[in-house]
Specification:
2 domains, Surface presentation of antigens (SPOA)
Length: 120
C-alpha cells in the first residue's frame, strides 16, 4: 500500500493511531502535539495586576488616613507601570482610557533576564 510520494504511507500511520491500543507518539506530528499541549492550559486562570506604584508606611500613619488622604507612591507621573501575572513581572505599560474605564497599553515585554532581575 505504500506509494513513493508518501501520501498513502501517511494515511496508514494516521489509521494505525486510531483506537485504544495506539502507540503514543507514533505518526503524530510535532505541531499537533504542541497544539494539544496548548489546549490543555488555555483555560487556566491567571491573576493579572497592573502596579501603579508602592510605598511603605507606619501603622500609625495608616490609621490616620481618611477619605481624601493622598498616599505618595514610589513612581513618578508618566513612568511605565509594571504588569504582573501571578505576581511576577512580565511587561510594562501605560494607562489608557477605554470608554469610561481605565486600561493599560503594553509598551514593553520583559526579556527572561529582566524578569529574573526584577524578582531579586
Amino acid at each position: 500500500m505504500e506509494k513513493e510520494n508518501g501520501k498513502e504511507k501517511e494515511k496508514v500511520l494516521e489509521t494505525e493511531q486510531e483506537g485504544p491500543d495506539k502507540e503514543e507518539g507514533v505518526g503524530v506530528r510535532p505541531a499537533d502535539v504542541d497544539q494539544q499541549q496548548l489546549k490543555m492550559i488555555l483555560d487556566i486562570p491567571l491573576q493579572v495586576t497592573v502596579e501603579l506604584g508602592r510605598t511603605r508606611m507606619l501603622v500609625q500613619d495608616l490609621l490616620q488616613l481618611t477619605q481624601g488622604s493622598v498616599v505618595e507612591l514610589s513612581k513618578m507621573a508618566g513612568e511605565p507601570l509594571e504588569i504582573l501575572v501571578n505576581r511576577k513581572p512580565i511587561a510594562r505599560g501605560e494607562v489608557v482610557k477605554v470608554n469610561e474605564k481605565f486600561g493599560v497599553r503594553i509598551t514593553e515585554i520583559l526579556s527572561p533576564a529582566e524578569r529574573v532581575e526584577l524578582l531579586g
